[in-house]
Design goal:
single chain, alpha+beta, 5-stranded antiparallel β-sheet, 4-stranded mixed β-sheet, 3 helices
């Protein structure tokens, strides 16, 4: 059942990707490059490739082929998840993902809000410009003046 749902989601997202313009991701003002672009849905759900975004946030991602478990470690935060499963853990505590992670061309795609919640970053998606801005705490956005509102 879970595999069928994951397959349907992946197909829907793939079709959306084929017919939409690519979404740009910026992390602390710097453009994120990935071999699989982010995917946005009609209902404004945005999915990003886990490893490239994790790398940009300074995380280390490990995939265990035997168990299918993906560990993303950023500082003292550890997120553990699996493709096709909404059950995850954050620092050993259960965490339910609103949307199931899935694969596109070998990359694990995760809802951007799940990563924001797990790693304490701010995320803003502007549908009009097809741009995602990820802001880590304590980093001044490019072009912003210190002390400016």
């Amino acid at each position: 059942m879970t595999m069928a749902i994951t397959a349907v989601i992946a197909l829907a997202v793939s079709m959306t990707l084929a017919f939409s313009r690519p979404v740009e991701v910026r992390v602390d003002g710097q453009r994120l490059l990935s071999d699989v672009p982010p995917v946005s849905t009609v209902s404004d759900r945005v999915y990003v490739a886990l490893r490239p975004l994790g790398d940009a946030l300074g995380a280390v991602t490990h995939y265990d082929e035997k168990t299918g478990q993906i560990d993303v470690v950023r500082g003292d935060q550890t997120l553990k998840l699996r493709v096709g499963d909404t059950h995850a853990t954050l620092n050993g505590m259960p965490m339910t993902l609103k949307h199931t992670p899935f694969r596109v061309r070998g990359r694990v795609m995760v809802n951007i809000k799940s990563l924001a919640r797990a790693f304490g970053v701010r995320v803003r998606y502007d549908k009009r410009t097809a741009r995602i801005d990820v802001q880590t705490p304590g980093v001044i956005e490019a072009g912003a003046q210190p002390g400016a509102p």
